């Protein structure tokens, strides 16, 4: 690494090579050991020594013995800079700006490698296990070079990263990135100096253990639209303002029923951790009726805890141990009020397992029927997860059958559990508990959307789900990572064809999803189920024929999300959203795409289902326009009939009153049309608030069924 003054940081970086040494642990305690190059805690070296340093940390004879050049494995490059404000103070004129090449080398034993680090660059070298390395990063008394933090947090120590997948890292191209130069700014303590250097890029190197976040910090780029693009859509801006300040989703968490039923502190923890592990679900769960809200909240947290155990690839000594924990979860975690688990998961998921007795306290206060549902679904999901433990998913699932089976276990069963909770709450018909197929399809639609969107993230993690029977038709290399090479015109074309076939497969689930929603009668339950569905169809529209899926994670605009939430209140709003995005997808179909006919057929099916609601909405708009126009014309006629000036102002007032009155009448008429004409339609439920439904149910046995 070449060092120089940052005044400000130069735009053209220097180049350097970096060697990170990895070797097997003879004692078998961990899969690998790594030479950790620890930076001096205090700036004991003078500026002259700093300037004279080569920057690599190793002399020409850094390794004694014969180490062939072919033994080094190139993995990636990073563009990085930092001011030496930590070692030489806030006014330091020194810094570095470079492109680093990351090379890996493995050896059979640490005893077969002698390391001779440069004395001006490295204070100490030690061999450590992965857990020891993580602990060292958490130790504030130790100071690591910023570039080492990048490598460790983004690639090496992340879940399913280089270390977890060491064999594949060294023997395959799975983790090799030949095309990208990753750009990073240093943490804030390494900014400034006499050059007042500030951020050049958008990715900031974490100062603490960023591996605490699921998915590893900064691993995959997120494709977002510019603020200008968002602000240009005034309707979405207004929707965001309305949802935030005027008409936010109402939270029922502080309802008297909830306060009197559950432990206040334990429930507060559950609500807080829910926001941490899933902010998107927190809002829609909180707006559920008080008699259902906590049941769904705990159901989600229990399954999230189970998923954390299944997802951790390093905490258990072998697959059998993990399977035993999964299969016994419904007995240990849900029957023992003191059960907890430490050392599993990361960040907030890890905290959830550590503090699980608080979740159990709330779970134990649920009705026996709700507990039975949660325990049953947990057991069946764990059984499905155990089936996939140990399967090599580096190249995805084998075929559509396995793809659907995986989605059923992790999402379809969630749909079934929710339907059963809706039924036992009394807010929905008991028959909802028997809608197994439609419930499963609801879950599959959401899960497949996530899998499609997360192609690159899952592939980098080494646990992908795109079915091989589909992507093998398009990959000329026989590798799922083929599609990530978007600089190759053929790979880009093939990748879009593969992507569009998977989107088409997901779209085929929409009719069943709309049929499920049509069976709901509680407004709050309908909204809870419908909001994720419209978000999913919007995400599929964003992904369809979009090459960005293969270079990062694509997300819909936040303003659009707010708009969808505001309009997802009834069948008309839901159908309008599905119709809009189906039309959008159809408009982007490439005639040369081998899936063009199938995609168009799937879109046409959605348009046919939503045609009735679309026609009804169009008639309402026309009726409102005609009535408003007629009222305005009548008011104008009344005004013009008065010739005297003294009557002009009262006439204008009469005109305005007539127009406003006609608008209110029209608006009321429209609402009556909606309520009166929606009954009897296969996809048009008659929704009523939870409070009214419960009153009907209390009026007599079967009242709720009769209302259906």
Task: Give a topology summary.
Blueprint (H helix, E strand, L loop, with lengths): L2 E3 L8 E10 L9 E6 L8 H6 L5 E7 L8 E11 L1 H4 L5 E14 L6 E4 L6 E5 L1 H9 L7 H11 L9 H6 L9 E4 L37 E2 L3 H5 L2 H13 L9 H6 L2 H14 L1 H8 L3 H22 L7 H17 L11 H8 L1 H9 L3 H21 L11 H25 L11 H18 L1 H7 L6 H4 L17 H19 L2 H9 L4 H21 L9 E2 L3 H10 L3 H17 L8 H45 L7 H30 L12 H9 L4 H5 L1
Parallel strand pairs: 2-6, 5-9, 10-11
Antiparallel strand pairs: 1-6, 2-3, 3-8, 4-7, 5-6
How does this model look, in words?
The chain has 708 residues and is α/β, with parallel strands linked by helices. It is 53% helix and 10% strand. The protein is built from 28 helices and 11 strands. Strands 1, 2, 3, 5, 6, 8 and 9 form a 7-stranded mixed sheet that branches. Helix 9 (264-277) packs across helix 14.
Which geometry do the CA atoms define?
globular
- Measured distance between first and last alpha carbons: 73 Å
The helix/strand class is: alpha/beta
In terms of DSSP E residues, the strand content is 5-15%
Number of helices: 28
User: Approximately how much helix is present in the residues?
Assistant: 40-55%
* Average of per-residue pLDDT values: 79
Multimerization state: single chain
Instruction: Specify Rg, calculated over alpha carbons.
Output: 30 Å
Low-confidence stretches: 1-64, 202-218, 648-680, 701-708
Main sheet makeup: 7 strands, mixed
Strand tally is 11
